[in-house]
Automatic annotation (TrEMBL):
It comes from the Bacteria. It is found in: Membrane. Keywords: Ion transport, Membrane, Transmembrane, Transmembrane helix, Transport. This is V/A-type H+-transporting ATPase subunit I. Belongs to the V-ATPase 116 kDa subunit family. The chain crosses the membrane at residues 366-395, 407-430, 442-469, 481-500, 506-525, 556-577, 584-612.
Length: 647
């Protein structure tokens, strides 16, 4: 239960054997390459960057093509979803099996066929848009009973078609009245405009045009040859034909969804190939030799050597030695099955540095305890326990999903435990005996919450002291943890006689301990400063930090608040169900719906609230006392799979 011990390696191998080497190392998996591209020392000795293989461009294009196909075909995916998909799970592959399966598949015929069909669909869509636009343009002229072609090419007259604003229509009509050889007609009216047809003789056309222009006439060219209503009918027939043609193509595309599993496997193959090719960017080279450095788990050094040997036909140089605390060593955590499920919480905050401790085993028991206290319902815990247990038993889960489900499986146990203490079963719909009644004993729960907070914070200070001692600095443990213990415990002992009947000596002794602790904090808190004034100011500022401890202890009142709120919401739901049950069969049916929906919603809120607030107590009140983090993750030499489980 710790940070995995790492060994650094230096490898000199011929450039001609780089592909074979990377292939073997990817099968091995547990290799973290150091980026030598910015190593000025090595470059000063004449080493150059390794040229990324030209094949990477082809791989990137293949990946883009596969993504295009997956994006389209996934919309027509008929495979199981939801719970059925979770039970079935993703297909398991080894890297060798993945390469063998992908090597026997050619995605290009599927891609080309799909691209061709999508091109046709796009062309049909463009034609449909054009025809709809033409139909919209013709709609205002549908009552025009003349073929459009008959209004073109007059030798003795001029035809005007267009719109004028409605507010100017009457004015325009009056101004056109004096013209003897001009015909005009309002064909239709829109929201703000009138559609006008005017036919004028050659002699009057210029004057008519001037009148139209003065009345904001906007010319419109009517498309087509026949009457507008016939043109619209032709468009409608073509639109219907387009729809049938497009539906037929889409049906063909839907049938192509059977290729999705093969495309997904090939995508994973390409992504791993891309990772392998890009790894070269971390290397340096001479004319014929690659220089490679990185890290591997110490316990896997033997398997690493075998992987290197399997790829090298010629001479090579490999040096593997246990990593020291110096350098940017990648972090890989190794915990038992219980603590593994809490590693994501540590990583979400920050991975430890190589010379730190893994805080995961330390946070796990407190997280379980606090989470259970915040949810605290036997019914909710049983649903969580049974649901997660069934999923873990019957479903083929990926490693990350399996850890997530196990996380809530473990959390269900303290939820049941605290629910039994509170006597809560779905908020009291079934009465069970409990040791504490939250509705009456809320002050007791509040005091318990503060006490649990004291234990949590004092444990964190103890870890801090241990780290100082482990680092060979017991004096630092006294200064930064011991004096704080004295100040806090003394302050608590000094205040307790105000609430409890304790001997006067308790208050006196506690005051002495508190003063010694506070004095020690003032004297040593600023010891890193260079001046006397700086040391004094730093010490006083450190003592001021005692106010943050008060805030920390108050923060643990959320253990009470969330536990009570969830229980009261559940009780309110049960109360409404009781009211509905007296309304006959309809009331009972509504009551069942309310119970299922209300309790499900409350479970969700309770679990979410407990997850967030327990994480907050861990990150701020607990980690804030001893943990800094800042480690970088160990990057496996494989792609994080999306569609398969890569073993």
């Amino acid at each position: 239960m710790a940070i995995v011990k790492m060994s650094s390696f230096s490898l000199f191998a011929f450039d001609s054997e780089r592909d074979d080497l990377l292939h073997e190392l990817q099968k091995f998996g547990y290799v973290h390459f150091s980026d030598l591209a910015n190593d000025e020392v090595l470059k000063g000795e004449g080493l150059r960057d390794v040229i990324v293989p030209e094949g990477i461009t082809e791989v990137d294009q293949d990946i883009a093509n596969i993504k295009y196909a997956l994006e389209i075909l996934s919309k027509n995916d008929s495979r199981e979803t939801g719970l059925k998909a979770m039970i079935k799970g993703k297909t398991n592959f080894t890297l060798e099996g993945l390469e063998e399966t992908a090597g026997a598949y050619d995605y290009k015929p599927v891609y080309e066929s799909l691209k061709d069909r999508m091109g046709k669909v796009e062309s049909l869509n463009q034609e449909e848009m054009r025809l709809n636009a033409a139909s919209d343009e013709l709609k205002p002229w549908v009552t025009l009973g003349y073929p459009v072609s008959s209004m073109k090419g007059f030798s003795q007259s001029e035809v005007f078609t267009g719109t004028v604003p409605k507010k100017l229509k009457d004015k325009l009509m009056n101004e056109l009245l004096p013209f003897d050889y001009t015909y005009y007609e309002v064909i239709s009216e829109g929201k703000d405009e009138s559609y006008l047809l005017a036919i004028s003789s050659k002699e009057e056309k210029d004057a008519v045009n001037e009148v139209l222009r003065n009345n904001s006439f906007s010319s419109i060219k009517i498309s087509g040859e026949e009457e507008p209503d016939k043109e619209m009918h032709k468009i409608a027939e073509r639109l219907s034909a387009l729809k049938s043609e497009r539906d037929a193509i889409k049906a063909e595309i839907k049938e192509m969804a059977v290729h999705l599993p093969d495309l997904e496997v090939y995508y994973e193959y390409l992504m791993n190939k891309k990772v392998r090719l890009h790894a070269s960017e971390n290397f340096l080279r001479t004319d014929s030799v690659n220089v490679i450095r990185g890290y591997i788990p110490t316990e896997m050094a033997g398997d690493f050597r075998k992987a290197v040997e399997a790829s090298q036909k010629n001479a090579y140089y490999l040096d593997v030695k246990e990593a020291t605390d110096e350098g940017d060593i990648p972090i890989l955590l190794k915990n038992n099955k219980l603590n593994q499920t809490f590693e994501s919480l540590t990583a979400m905050y920050a991975l430890p540095q190589y010379n730190e401790i893994d805080p995961t085993p330390l946070l796990a028991p407190f997280y379980l305890f606090f989470f259970g206290m915040m949810v605290a319902d036997v019914g909710y815990g049983l649903i969580l326990l049974v649901g997660t247990a069934v999923i873990l038993k019957i479903a083929n889960l990926s490693e990350s999903t399996e850890k997530f489900i196990r996380f809530f499986f473990y959390l269900s146990i303290p939820t049941i435990f605290w629910g039994a203490i509170y006597g809560s079963f779905f908020g009291g719909i079934i009465k069970i005996p409990g040791l504490i009644d939250p509705a009456k004993d809320y002050m007791m729960i509040l005091i318990m919450s503060i006490i649990f907070g004291l234990v949590h914070v004092f444990f964190a200070l103890g870890v801090k002291a241990f780290l100082y001692v482990r680092a060979g600095d017991p004096i630092g443990a006294l200064f930064d943890a011991g004096f704080w213990y004295m100040a806090l415990i003394g302050a608590i002992g000094f205040l307790l006689p105000m609430f409890l009947d304790l001997p006067p000596a308790v208050k006196t002794i506690s005051m002495v301990v508190m003063i010694i602790g506070m004095g020690g904090i003032v004297v040593t808190g600023g010891r890193s400063a260079n001046t006397v004034v700086g040391k004094a100011a730093g010490g006083l500022y450190s003592l001021y930090g005692i106010s943050s401890y008060v805030g920390d202890f108050v923060s643990y009142s959320r253990l009470m608040a969330l536990g009570l709120s969830g229980g009261f919401i559940a009780s309110a739901i049960n109360m409404m169900i009781g009211m509905l049950s007296g309304m006959g069969i309809i009331g009972i049916l509504f009551g069942v719906v309310l119970f299922v929906g209300g309790q499900a919603f409350n479970i969700f809120l309770s679990l979410l609230g407990a997850y967030v607030h327990t994480s907050r107590l861990t990150y701020v009140e607990f980690f804030g006392k001893f943990y800094s983090g800042g480690g970088k993750p160990f990057n496996l030499f494989q792609n994080a799979s999306k569609y398969i489980n890569l073993k």
